[in-house]
Amino acid sequence: MDQGRQLFTVDLLERYAAKGRGVITCMTAGNDVIVIGTSKGWVIRHDFGVGDSYEIDLTAGRGGEQSVHRVFVDPGGCHCIATVVGSAGAETYYTHAKWNKPRALTNLKGLVVNAVAWNRQLITEASTKEIILGTDNGQLHEVAVDEKDKREKYVKFLFQLRELPQPFMDLQMETANLSTGTRYYVMVVTPTRLYSFTGIGSLETVFASYLERAVHFMELPGEIPNSELHFFIKQRRAVHFAWLSGAGIYHGGLNFGAQNSYSTGDENFVENKALLDYSKLSESAETIKPTSMAVSEFHFLLLIRNKVKVVNRISEQIIEELQFDRASESVSRDIIGLCSDATAGLFYAYDQNSIYQVSVNDEGRDMWKVYLDMKEYAAALANCRDPLQRDQVYLLQADAAFASRDFQRAASFYAKVNYILSFEEITLKFISASEQDALKTFLLRKLDNLTKDDKCQITMISTWATELYLDKINRVLLEEDNASENHSSEYQSIIQEFRAFLCDSKDVLDEATTMRLLESFGRVEELVYFASLKEQYEIVIHHYIQQGEAKKALEVLQKPAVPVDLQYKFAPDLIALDAYETVESWMATKNLQPRKLIPAMMRYSSEPHAKNETHEVIKYLEFCVHRLHNEDPGIHNLLLSLYAKQEDDGSLLRFLQCKFGKGRESGPDFFYDPKYALRLCLKEKRMRACVHIYSMMFMHEEAVALALQVDPELAMAEADKVEDDEDLRKKLWLMVAKHVIKQEKGTKRENIRKAIAFLKETDGLLKIEDILPFFPDFALIDDFKEAICSSLEDYNRQIEQLKQEMNDATHGADKIRNDISALAQRYAVIDRDEECGACKRKILVMGGDYRSRGYTSVGPMAPFYVFPCGHAFHAQCLIAHVTRCTTETQAEHILDLQKQLTLLGEGAGISKSGINEESIASTTPVDKLRAQLDDAIASECPFCGELMINEISLPFILPEEAHQVSSWEIKSHNLGSQRTLSLPV
């Protein structure tokens, strides 16, 4: 045992606890409250929780000698029951922690109470709830007391010993709440027997059931002056009991939840029963029985004479002896008894005057060693405090298993040892015993116990375990010859276990080392499995391809984590291995670039295929073109080349005629190379396709020439495609006509008839005279009589139509001449108050202020212009307005014309209408200049014509007027707190 600090110590707590009220006769404790009874009938309460004490006299009003026989306090320290025995008989009292005076329980008058069982689950500070009292005459009573009532609520008789009338010496009770009600467990002891009662319902119902059935009891020989029964309470539940009997200490565990049956006859709630013989407590031959007892979690405290012997409940060995430090005047007095405070976890001893406290100092400290010595390993582990203690337990278990040749079990325990035995020593044990399987088990269990920080150890041990697995697989394979069936199942089992190990250890195993190890043992399948776990998909796919399992390889490629580059790398092998599955996989894969698959598809296409076999590459290319709308020229060119090699050119023609780029804003209608397509079709002699390509490239002459070699009808269709170029269309039809005429092999008249019929197909584009040169020189004109007459009639109709158009033109010219003649006679009426549109002065004003250069005044009036819309302007005002509003170039032209007129000095006047009377017939330079000036300024009214419309777009402020903007700006000034608002222009 550990020779450190003692587990139990005893100290004097109170020297004169009786306070002169006699000597101490009995004591009890609960929740740091000690209640003692004295020989003079006093109850003294010491409350160490609040540091207070007071005395209660139980002899008030009674004469004679009075002594407190028993005193009881509940676990909470609130309720107290005391029995006083004197010459007048026995009297039982109840007192509360808040009371100064006791209350007699009148219904118990005359009964000597030896024991009280408290209902720990239900008791409160205000009420005791139901409690059981055991009396000296072998009776049990149920009592309940409420603090506010000042008296008992009821007292009920429960049970009477009749077979062997003995006093009840001690009593304990426990309850359990079940779905069917409350179950009671009651244990009672007499000097020689231990009785057990149990049942569901009320206490009265439980004990009433024993009127019809036998009471369960345990009887032990011998007697003891004070028979005691103790429950050890842990977390408010009784976990084991001890009975201080005449034969020894009868003890065991309590399991109140073990009953599956709720019958009233089930009293078997005691387990692991044992009897501690008193002979083990003394080294001499004399057996000395304890006078009192207390129970802790692992020990019995036994009062033997004036010493307390601490006995381990499990090993039944005395571990300590406690001596009392007593005053000289009380040396002759013996210790009366022991009591315990279950709530506070303390123990007390008392003599006639003093109280001693027995303290517990980590009593479970050495329990692991106790259980280990008894080979109760589970209990030993449960009581270990540190890793070294657990190592000793595991090591002892491992050594025992190894000695009994249970190597697998030994390996599991050795794996848990971390400190007192090295890893190398343990492995050498199994290697020396040639136990490879046990060594593997040890390594696996060791891996489970290592932490993530031990990366190096984990990797090394995992690699070693891998090698042991491979060795085990080979050994199983070598043994298969003798018992193939059994070893086959074993082989499958070890393979599954090994694969599970690889899956669990994939992150800690070194990839290169593990793969070399698997390869050296020839485990290809496991190598592929490990490569898959390590996401080395290239190795996995390569293996499946070598095995011819294309479908499995494609399943690997379909995984999201697989790089898409592997699709392109293995495409040639996969499509050669299984073209259908490969193409189906390609079509199901997203984000695949078909261009990178072209080498694989070309390799597959170069190999011979059955005539009726579906060409998988064509199927995939059609999927790319039609479904994925692929625009890659390489894809389109490859598909076109495969179509060209087919016997039927239907697919090729449909592909060429399909405009894949139709509907886009920009770009071609097709994506293949037309020149490559033409060369390919010419090489493969796909003439119809060549005709289509020529036509698509706008090489219509070549298209028609080639079509004539294939089918004249195709040539005619090609010739009809040209609609915007009439000459080219006619030329193409002439080519067709020439070919048709030369190909006819019938009689002369039949050839001519067919040629005339061909003319009708051209819808009048060709005439008889166009095709006559194609006939032989010896052809007779009579054979073309009908066609020539028809042609002449067409020409006659055209001549008549031209004549009619000429007549219409002549009539139109006459009308124009008449209009020109009438123009010279046109005039306008001016009101005398009419104002100039520019200067706002009257047009017909007298004076020479408005004489313009280049114009001659009409009498006293200035020259002016009048427009059909009614606006009128002085000539000089109109020139100034138009010059200002028109462009700079036009203004310079107008001023130049005016200057030339001034220099010529022409004095001819103008009419009021603004047109000289002789201007129509005049051809002088002045007239030409004046006409040009009129066209420049008076071709339209400046207010109603285009000049005014153009002014709409001019800015309100001209660039040269920008300096005036600043003069319009409203400037703000800060005037105190007044707010101002700036209004920018």
Provide structural commentary.
By secondary structure, the protein is α+β, with helices and mostly antiparallel strands. The protein is built from 32 helices and 30 strands. The strands form 8 sheets. A 4-stranded antiparallel sheet has the order 1-28-27-26, with no helix packed on it. A hairpin with a 4-residue loop joins strand 26 (337-341) and strand 27 (346-350). Helix 11 (524-533) runs antiparallel to helix 12. The protein is elongated, with a radius of gyration of 65 Å. Residues 260-266, 745-749, 906-922 and 975-985 have low confidence and may be disordered.
Rg value: 65 Å
- What average pLDDT do the residues reach? 81
Note the overall shape. Answer: elongated
Number of strands: 30
Strand content: 15-25%
Give the strand order of the largest sheet, numbering strands 1, 2, ... along the chain.
Answer: 1-28-27-26
Largest sheet: 4 strands, antiparallel
Low-confidence stretches: 260-266, 745-749, 906-922, 975-985
Structure annotation, total helices = 32
| Share of helical residues | 25-40%
Given helix and strand content, the structural type is alpha+beta
Ends: how far apart?
Answer: 106 Å
